[in-house]
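Ligand: magnesium ion. Inputs:
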Amino acid sequence: MNIAIIGTQWGDEGKGKIVDLLTQKKKVKAVVRYQGGPNAGHTVVVRGEKHAFHLLPSGILYPDKTCVIGNGVIIDPAVLAEEIKILEDSAGKKHARILISEKCHLIMPWHKIRDVLDCGKIGTTGRGIGPCYEDAVGRRGIRLIDAANKKRLGLRIKEELTWNRCLIKTWKGKFNLSSEKILSDYWQALEGIKKNPLIQIGDVTEWLWETERKGGEIIFEGAQATLLDINHGTYPFVTSSNSTVGGLLTGTGFRPKKLEVIGVVKAYTTRVGSGPFPTELINKTGERIREIGHEYGTTTGRPRRCGWLDIPSLIYAKKINNLDSLAMTKLDVLTGIGALKIKVNPNFSVDTVELSRQRPVYETLSGWNENIAKIRRFEQLPQAAKKYIKRVEQLTGLPIKLIGVGSDRRAIIRKNV
Ligand code: GDP
Ligand code: IMO
Ligand code: MG
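Predicted complex:
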């Protein structure tokens, strides 16, 4: 069965860990990113070694698989080249093959400047995401297809530079790079990528189609999360792509015949950047969760805002993505916190004015003090931890099939449902 892994909250739920775990299965042939860009930071921990992926799919550590970057992903060639270098310095050439869609849009230097000047107010990652997607929709984007040869890329850079200089000047920003400098930097990074024998730029749709036809299973790795989706999230405090399941179809040009959709949820909630967050804990408990859970951004290092679990928002994520089940990560972080609260208001609103006014109605559950990091069977969890899981299942109407009890690849409980 093909599987889509989708964030149910405001990101950083542990999608990378779940993708890495599911990729182990022999029948899985490919792991696909289909939206977002280097704003994503997905962590995989293998025997104590931490890997952070921004553009590379989290199945990259398996040499016998193919990692696919679909057309919906926007690429910063320097970030991709650096990420591959870090990976190869640590893992050598023993990583998955990489197939990148020629239709991917490139993040250009002016996108990063516009991001900071225009979009900074919502607390973006500053990676040029919004402006790059804006240009893609505005039909001004530069794609990998345009980088087929140096002359063509140089022409496109010149065409876009004039307009961008004007735009940045009106916002009283500075843009000093020449088209020659941009071309030489981009060409160097792209040449390095193209020369790598494990990387191919080509037709993703065709390859996925053939892989499915031959019986291979595919994992689709969502970046960001439901509440950050451009159409369905807490607009305008969102990212600029479809991070709900819908992004999968347009971001690959491929419709899987069968698809299981697993929502990843942290045992509590975090958010980076601005925007309403009704269950936010601006107190010692929030700080404690941040410290125990190492809640600092994988991409920007910013402290993540922490709060209780929000059940109505999970039910919203269930409906938008038609989730089949949940994977709950970071249950271990709640150990020793004391009594636990979950928000149970009857409704969730993505109207940010209404959401910021909403007063959370909480249900209180008992906490536990036992260390659960080494537990691998649901039955062995403390009574209170089992009750917490069961109550979330009951309130959301979704089975929780995987439970994370530590950052390592092996720190997981597979629960029979
Ligand atoms: P993603 O963006 O959804 O892939 O999540 P991130 O990688 O940005 O953030 C999740 C963080 O939690 C990473 O540092 C993971 O290594 C860590 N993590 C994932 N699952 C667990 C878990 O079950 N327990 C603990 N303690 N850490 C986890
Ligand atoms: P992963 O895939 C958490 C947030 C930013 C900001 C908003 C818009 O690791 O879960 P952008 O740079 O995308 O224009 O910023 O979205 N954001 C994330 N928050 N995890 C992410 O990705 C995020 N990607 C973007 O903090 O509030
Ligand atoms: Mg992350």
